[in-house]
Amino acid sequence: MDGRCKPAFPKEAQKASLSAGFFTSGTFTAKGKPAWFSCQRIYSNACAFLECFLHPYLFIGFKSRRQKMQKTILGAAIAAICGFGTSAAMAQQASTSKVELWGIADAAIRHTNNEGADKGSLTKMIGGGMSQSRWGINVEEDLGGGTKALVHLEHRFNLDTGEKDATAPFFQLSYIGLQGPYGRLTMGRQWNVLFDVVSSTYASFPYSPYMDAYKPELGMAAGARTSNSLKYLLATPDRRWVGALQYSFHEGNQNTSAVENTLAAAAPGLINSQLPPGAPSVTGATTLGQIASAIGPQNLAALMSGVKSTINNADPNSPLGQAVAPSLSPIATSSLKTFGGFLRYSQDGISVGGGYLRTHLPAGTKLDAWTLGGSYRKDKLYVNLGYGANKIKNRETFNQTANSTISDIAKFEARRLVDQTIINGFWQGQTNGGFLAGDSDKRTMYKLGFGYQITPQINAGIHYYHAKQKGSASGNYNGKADFVVALANYAFSKRTDAYFGVDHTKVRGGEDMYLDRTSKARSRTGITAGLRHRF
User: Could you tell me the CA-to-CA distances from 207 to 77, 210, 295, 488, 502 in Å, in that order?
Assistant: First the structure.
């Protein structure tokens, strides 16, 4: 039986989404006879699944990623597994379905300075310097009339330990869809439209859209992936124009009550812990007026400021952090309601495009993100530039009075904490060139990069990013950041390459403009060297 089980890797490194086909290929029309639903069809698909995934030890004669896997099957064993009707189903399956197994193995040594509270150096192995290690399965079935069904599954892991990221789902991409003459509709967890347009139109490097160990541009992409999403993608026949629309559902998006109740219960203890030396206990006080009567109005503002800072900046290992984490984590990683789209044009080495995405956060905050940019390719030269902006809107406010209860204030801070945790995940990740967001409400970024193929085996590139952050009421988080990365890549073959990169980040501005809260560093340099294989 030929189940079309072959190793494959998307045509451009890192573009695991099948939407890359609309950007790079003009052969998206499926050909073949209609595959009608039948019992024979069910048995055929079941046998293909068993053959490809449960019995790999029956295969011999694997070839390269661009060739079909040639296999010798132990017929009696497969017949016993698949049951009756196998031979007829095999013939039909061979002409209508295709299963591709592909992956990336990447490991690197990375050295950085200004790490930790002592601002020391850190050298470690990471499970992906240029690309995050992963394996994936692509499935296509010809439905006739130029239409096909498709499935995409992608699992990412840390090659250095063999473990998956504990904060990420098992499949970081997982979707199903239909593709035909009028476009493609997919459903599931997918790249969002911001990532689609940036990675396909003005990616940082020509041989890999970004460096996984250092990718400031992805900090502007609202998480890059979206769960529970619908995406419709359409291209002109010549693929010069490509556009897409995205919508995702807010499943579990509005339930912040668990975090609110946790902080409301912890609030009296937090207030007592922040009292100035010698102040009387305020145990039993339920309103701001009662607290002010106990400690004096002059101490109330400083007290509440300290309480809010403790809530928003709590160490995950502190008692408060441990108390909040069980109820905060599921919400912070839940599905978020989004809608947006992108449009792209490409001809004669010139590509331009832009995209917009609105994300609704659990407590009502909205994050608007948009991007615009382009690139130029000619012979061995690649130039790209782009702009991105994130704007936070509709943050909840609370008008405190003497009659405001401690419980109400704590619940308000809990709702803000939920939304801020999600924003921090977008803006503060160190691999995303992150720096502290605080109470700022807007971040913009410009990027400019050059790449050049020095020899058939050697590629080099340099990229510069400039970010600006503003809207901080206190002014502590207003400031600017500069990022630069230089990268060289040596290709041993079409599938195996080595790379070496140097990156530097520097922030300046308000007193809390730091790369992270632990080190309070304002600059950091990284050196990365690694090896990557694609199959």
Answer: 43, 9, 63, 11, 17
d(CA 97, CA 112): 47
Question: What are the structural domains of the chain?
Answer: 107-253+334-395+441-534 (2.40.160.10)
Report d(CA 315, CA 325) in Å as an integer: 10
Mean pLDDT of the 94-117 span:
91
Query: How many residues are recorded in the chain?
Result: 535
Residues 402-439: b if buried by 16+ CB within 10 A, e if exposed: eebebbbbbbbbbbbbbbbbbbbbbbbbbbbbbbbbbb
Q: Which residues pair with 355 in a beta bridge?
A: 342, 371
Would you list the DSSP string of 195-226?
HHHHHHHS-S-SSSSSBTTB-GGGGGSTTSEE
Query: Does 58 have pLDDT greater than 50?
Result: no
* Per-residue pLDDT reduced to its tens digit, 419-452: 888 888 888 875 666 899 988 999 999 999 999 9
Q: Say how far apart CA 481 and CA 435 lie, in whole Å.
A: 8
Q: Is the pTM of this model over 0.85?
A: no
